[in-house]
From TrEMBL:
It is an enzyme of class 1 (oxidoreductase). Signal peptide: none annotated. Its cofactor is heme b. Residues 1-29, 51-81 are annotated as: Disordered. One of its GO terms (biological process) is hydrogen peroxide catabolic process. This is L-ascorbate peroxidase. It comes from Gossypium davidsonii. SUPFAM superfamilies: Heme-dependent peroxidases.
Length: 162
C-alpha cells in the first residue's frame, strides 16, 4: 500500500471521465480492451476487475439492462429491485464467474461484456481460473484494483512504498 496520496485542488486537475464498458462496437471484447488498455491494464486485470460484478445489481432505468426486480432482489436491502449478477449480491466471492460459466439462471444478469469473458480465448483463461480458484481471484482482483485506484495519482514523497 502506498501512503501519501495527494488530493487534487479542483476538477481541472482530474483526468477526463471515460465511459464504462457498454459492449460498444466492434465487439464486447474489443470494447473492454479499448477502455482498459488505455489505462495500462491487461486482459488478466480486465477479467479480475469484472469480478466486482459479484456485488450489486443493475436497474434497467439507469443502465438499459436488467429486470425491474427478480426473486433475488425484490426484498433486498435499501430500495428493492434491479437485477443482480449473482444470487448473493452482497457477498464478494467468485460466484460471478461460476454463474456466468453455468448459464443457468435467467434471473441473473449477464451483460455482453460479462458473457465475453468466457468467449474470448484470452479472457477465458482467467475467467475459468477464477471460477475454480477463489483465492487466485481475490489476489488478482486486489492487485488490479490497487493499480486502477492509483492511476494518475500523485504521492508525496513519491518514493515511499510500504
Amino acid at each position: 500500500m502506498k501512503y501519501g496520496r495527494v488530493d487534487v485542488s479542483g476538477p481541472n486537475e482530474c483526468p477526463e471521465e471515460g465511459r464504462l464498458p457498454d459492449a460498444g462496437p466492434p465487439s464486447p471484447a474489443d470494447h473492454l480492451r479499448e477502455v482498459f488498455y488505455r489505462m495500462g491494464l491487461n486482459d488478466k486485470e480486465i477479467v479480475a476487475l469484472s469480478g466486482a460484478h459479484t456485488l450489486g445489481r443493475s436497474r434497467p432505468e439507469r443502465s438499459g439492462w436488467g429486470k425491474p426486480e427478480t426473486k433475488y432482489t425484490k426484498d433486498g436491502p435499501g430500495t428493492p429491485g434491479g437485477q443482480s449478477w449473482t444470487v448473493q449480491w452482497l457477498k464478494f466471492d467468485n460466484s460471478y464467474f461460476k454463474d456466468i460459466k453455468a448459464k443457468r439462471d435467467e434471473d441473473l444478469l449477464v451483460l455482453p461484456t460479462d458473457a465475453v469473458l468466457f468467449e474470448d480465448s484470452s479472457f477465458k483463461v482467467y475467467a475459468e481460473k477464477y471460477a475454480e480458484d477463489q483465492e487466485t481471484f481475490f489476489k488478482d482482483y486486489a492487485e488490479a484494483h490497487a493499480k486502477l485506484s492509483n492511476l494518475g495519482a500523485k504521492f508525496d514523497p513519491p518514493e515511499v512504498c510500504l
